[in-house]
Amino acid sequence: MLRLPPRVKVLEALGALADGRVKRVGEGVCEVVSSEGDRVYHVAVRGVYVSSDDNGTVYRGYVGYPIIACLMAEGRLPMDWELAERLRGVPWRKLNELYKRYDEVVKHVYAERRIDRSRAERYISTVLEQLAKMGLRREGP
Question: Which residues of 1-141 form beta strands (DSSP E)?
Answer without folding.
Answer: 22-26, 29-33, 40-46, 49-52, 137-138
